[in-house]
Structure formats: C-alpha cells, structure tokens
Amino acid sequence: MTSLPLRDAIWTGRSRHAGILAILSVLAAVAIIASLGVGASAISPGTVLRTLLHAADASPRDAAIVLHLRLPRTLLGFGLGAALAVSGAMMQGLFRNPLADPGLIGVSAGGAMAAVAVIVLGVPALLAGTVGPFALPLAAFAGSLCTTLAIQRIASDDGRTDVSTLLLAGIAINAIAGAVTGFLIFGSDDRQLRDITFWSMGSLGGATWTTVLGLAPFAVGAVVAAGRWAGVLDALLLGEREAGLLGFDVEPAKRRIVIATAAAVGAGVAAAGVIGFVGLVVPHLVRLMAGAGHRLLLPASALLGGTLMLCADMLARTVVIPAELPIGLVTALLGGPFFLWLLIRQRRSFPP
Amino acid sequence: MMKPVILLATLLLLVSQVSAQTSPQTTGRIVSVGGAVTEIVNELGLGDRLVAVDSTSLHPLEMRALPQVGYMRALSAEGVAALHPDLVLLSDNAGPPATIEQMRGLGIPLKLIPDRPTPEGVADKIRAVGAALGRQGEAETMARETTDRLAAVSRVVEKAAGRPRVLFLMGLGRGAPVAAGRNTAADAMIRLAGGINAIDGYDGYKPASGEAILDAAPDVLLLPTEAVDAAGGRDAVLALPQFAGTPAALSGRLVVMDTLYLLGFGPRLPDAVADLALALHPELAQDLANDAAPKPGGRS
Question: By Cβ atoms counted within 10 A, which residue in A174, A275, A333, B73 is the most buried?
Fold first, then answer.
C-alpha cells in the first residue's frame, strides 16, 4: 500500500479524477438500469422504460412490479451500497487501518442486538399501536446509534477522542453486544431463530418507498458530508498530530465522522439487515484503481459501492427464482474472491 | 482498470440471461407455503394444480420436484408474482411481513391459513384450506375424520399402564444435543402419544448438557431419521456416552421418526400419534390396530 500515495501524487490531475468518476458514473447508471430490468418476472426492457416514463400506459401488474418493487429496491440498494462504502472509506481513514469497517464502532452489532431483541421479546403492547411494523427498523437504528455514541463517549476525554481507545472500546462493546444477542437467541423459539438467521444475512427484499425515504436522508447526508472531510482524512493519513499542525480542526471532524457513519450505517442496518463486506472491500478496490487520496476515494467509493450492491442484489434475486438468496451471502461470496484476486495481482505488480 | 469493467459487464450479461423465466397464464395455479398446508392440498386431490411450494413442503415426495419459493420465512414477492398464481396459500407462520404486504400490493390473491401445532389446529387448517379451494365438503369430512381418529387414538392411549419419560432430540451434532422442552411440537406429540416429556425445565428447543440428559432419566429416546443416519445408525446412537446410564440406553429403547411426519401437525397427525403411541406402549398394539386404525378406503 505504501507505494500508492506516491503514485497518486505523480498521476493526480483533475482530468484523471474526472475520468475515473465518469467511468464509475456510467457503470452506476448501467447497474441501475439493469436492476430495474431484471427480476423473476420477465418484463421487456422497452416495457420497463415505458412504465417509468408513463406509468398509465403499462399494465397494472407491470407497473406495480417496476414502480413498487424494483424501483424502491434499486434505490435502496444503491443508497445502501454508497453509504456503506463511504462509511468504510471514512473509517479506514480515521483509524488509519485497512481492516477498519463501520462494524468496528459498534454500528452493526448494536443494530443487530436491538433487532434481535424486537424479534425475540416482541414490541410492548403500548408501543405496538403507534410504531407497528416500524418497530424493528426503528430499534435497529436506535441500537446502532446508541452503541456508537457509547463507544465515542468512552473514548473521549476533555473533548479529545483517542482513536486507539475508540478501536479498543469498539471491540469490547461489540463483544458485549454480541453476547447479549447470543443470550436473546438462546431464549428464542424455532421460528424466531430462523428470522434472526435470515435477518442477519441481509436482504433488500423488504424495500418499499417508506424504507427508501427512511434511509435517504442519512445515506445522502453521509455521502455529501464525506466530501467536506476529504481534506482532514488525507491529513490524518500522516498522523493526528501532523493533521493538527497542517491546520485542520481534527477533534470535531473525528466526532462528526463517527456520528455520520453511525447514522448512515445504522439506517442501512434498519432497512436491510446486516450486509457485510461492502464497507470493507469497496474502498480497497477504489484505492487499487485510483490511489488513496480521499477527494477521489470518497465519491468513487460511493458510486462503486452502490453499483456493486446492485449487481449483488441482481444475482441474489435471480439465481434461485422464484426464491431469493440473502444478499449478504452474495456480497461475501463475490466480494471475497474478487478482492483476493486484486490483492494478489497488486502484490505481483508492486513487490514489497 | 479494464479487467474489473469486463468482469462486471459479463456479470450483467449473465444476470440478464437468468431473468427470462416465466410461464403462460393458466387457471387454477396454486402456490402453497407451509409443509402441512401443502399436504392438505394434496389430500384434497388438488396436488396437480400446485405450481410451486416452499422448502418446508417435503411431503408427498412429488412436491420436492416443484419449483421452490424458498424458506417460508424468507419469501420473495416478485418471485411469487412471476409464477402467475391464481391463489397463494400461506401458512400464517410465513413471512417476512414486508414481503406479504408487497404481494398484497401486487394484487396476488392470498389466503392465510392458521397454522397451530395442536390437534384442533389441524382441523382448523384443513377447513381453512378447503374453504380457500372451494372444497368445503371434502375438507369438512377430512377434518371430522382426523378429529375422530385422534379421539380414538387417545381413548386407547388412556388405557396405557404407565407414562414413559420421552426425550426428543433434534440432532446429535457437535456439542450438546438440542432437546425439546415445553411448548414445542415435540412436547405436544409426546403427550398425545401417552408419554411425558423428560425435559420440563425450559421452553423451546435448547442444547441439553450430558448431566441434564442423565438427570432427565428418559425411558425412551425419540430422534429424527436424519439424525440417527448421520450418527451411524441405532446402535451407534445408543452407545453414545451422553446417553450412557439412562434407562433408555440400558433398555435400548430408541424411536426413530421422520421430522415432518412427527412434528408437521398436518393431515397425517393421527397416523403419527398412533405410530408414536405404538412405539411407547407396545402392549397397546392390539387395541391400536382394532380401534384406531384408518378406516378402510380412507386415506393411507
């Protein structure tokens, strides 16, 4: 990895940045269109297009499938992939650790703990009337945020967040959340156990316009805000003191990055369960292609994250028609070997 | 840079190839979700109208050759829609709820079937499936027959001299075997067949330690067929150290039954209860054969 910033420095130019972003945007557009055209029901591309442009012309069934199943699902998948990848890139920059991913600050474990609690313990009758079907996503979101805030609080002293304490506290809180989840699972019945299993492998299958609207502010917020932190994340690659000496206000940036990540990934966990690997792998793929500078890394990760998530989802819902695979399986099964291949290729072309 | 792009393009191409899978519209296409629901559809003689089932629908054997809509708690709305069903029978255990809402939104005709693991639940299931399929008459007969046969079996079981302690284990995998506690389908079956569940310390299916198993002192071990096969047969199971010293191992009393047959609470329930009762109370063989056998010409 050490040779990359150097290469980046030599090659960096606005035109190169623009070129890479243009290619990724085209890929993203292709993935979005493909995702609208692919599914268990055979609907011709022409029909899909006509339905999107003028829904009244299409048969009600085609319109319902395209507008109420595929479109929200596609938007949810793209937004979620973008949010996970950007969050992963920010975490890796913040922790200066290539193995960092949003899970490290307790987002996934906290969300999972709360979601499992809702599945096993149910919703108190008093609340059931008001929150109803949103109990699980709301709980997952709250669980994600609370866990991360707790970790952040533990690692902060006098307004200064110590990154290594953040990491260690994250590991400890993750273990505790995992144990509580395990305890709840122990108390679950057969049916709840299976719900938990499927939920924890992730799925975009429950996508509705409501879930899309629930995720959108957090995903868009994280991606937009990430752009503002590119400079400070670049400086952090040198070290925290060095970033401070370069004139960056490091402390508030660190805090906000953690909170933005928790909100975006928490909303993602709420919408689709736990989908691993995207947050870890996508930033690495971008670095291998385009170098480690965050000005390019963050937007490129968002585009590639969304694109790959849609590709994984297209496979997930077509390989076992009329059933569908949990998307977490596909992201790990495709992402893992692809990532290994890139790593090996990288080591051959840049021997250590 | 180029290679990933090519790879991605290939991937997209592959995906678009897979999506062209649908069938022409015909009348009476049924999708059935839930093992017991599927059995009832078949018992009502409408098995040939099924176009897809879920992964818990394993009986009768032909069902395993039908397209699968996946596990009943992880259904896909578009997948089901693509089958152009005229009716989807859903066990009310099916899910996830968001997918069922989506199916409603698509205008797919759904019928929720109450699915409780109790004898009354079986009759309710049969009536509900019959009503959904417009076969109320046959369903009513089948429900009555099932209830009557169950009553006949329990009358015979009541004559049993004792109540053996029965331990039901889900499997014998690595670590502690998972045993059925209270409020499980296995617990209900053991009671119906005139036994006592040897585990009464907890609800649901949980791992039981070797000591807990010894402490439970089961007279009979009850295991699914797959578990016994995987462990290497009856003798191998009875010789396992975690059962050593239990009355069941000492007297060699191991009952092996198919999981869906034993725990499915479908139309085969009276047969399953009678089979288990016969295994628990061999002395009742004559009575069970005389009073609780299926009526000639009835269902097998």
Answer: A275
